[in-house]
Amino acid sequence: MQREKFGLLLGLLGVICFSLTLPSTSIAVEYFGTTVVGLGRTVVAAILVALVLIVRKEKLPSLRQFKSLAIVALGAVLGFPLLTSWAMESLPVSHGAVELALLPLATAGFAMFRAGEVPSIKFWISSVIGSLAVIMYALHLGFGQLQFADLALLAAVIILGLSYAEGGRLAKELGSWQVIAWAIMIGAPFFIIPVGLNLTTEMINAPFQAWISFIYLAVVSQFLAYVAWYSGMAMGGIARVSQIQYLQPFLMILFATVFLGESITFFTIVIALIVVISVILGKNAPVSKKGDALEENPVKRA
What we know:
Elements lengths: L1 H18 L1 H12 L1 H23 L6 H25 L5 H8 L2 H12 L2 E3 L1 H20 L7 H27 L1 H22 L10 H29 L1 H5 L5 H13 L5 H18 L3 E3 L2 H5 L1 H4 L1
Antiparallel strand pairs: 1-2
Helix pairs in contact: 1-10, 1-12, 2-3, 2-10, 2-12, 3-4, 3-9, 3-10, 4-8, 4-9, 5-12, 6-8, 7-13, 8-9, 8-10, 9-10
């Protein structure tokens, strides 16, 4: 129980760090562009990661582990950063925050197939309540009509959900920070050329907040936040820890209010409370492993 509680705490820390990703992206992409913000963060993070791997003399992952790392890299290193950077050029942070609230369902769904976790009915009921709450919030704000940027965000949700589930499963055998570290090292070499082609001299004169936002994306969003997040999932369970993600859209809106001047309404606070209640219910819901029922009933297994 103590291990699960600590895992939930690490998951919460990761979610708080991730909640600053869209606001930071919205600021940085205006000055650096989609490619540099979406892929350049990985190139910068790779320098830090390489130093850590060398100092710690980490062993290379096995071929089987590399296959899983490729899935993590596809979502967390390539797909999500690039798609969200493109979407944030035309959408407000609150818009993106609402759609990313569907991420816990995507993560839990992939966890069932990739990690063998079987959430209970109570877990899924709490997930549906949380999802319906954010959908109501989206409809209230008039986000019912999908744009191409909306499709990009939905694709980001699906691909990152798979990446989270795969990374959480792999973290149990490879190590939490090692998962995202090796995923970054896999993706970074392919990003150097496109990032280099999109660099301009005007970027040097970008304002201080743009540089701070980009550095945050590279060091925290792309690496340190994943260390906390994958550690949390490895300790507390992928499906259960993923419930904390329901807090993420409202933390994003809060940070957008503080750093971007976007307004927050009473309706937002009410929906946030509903989502928090669903997180608490989901956190306490039982989550079993495939095959547990057969182990408890040998007759059924025979």
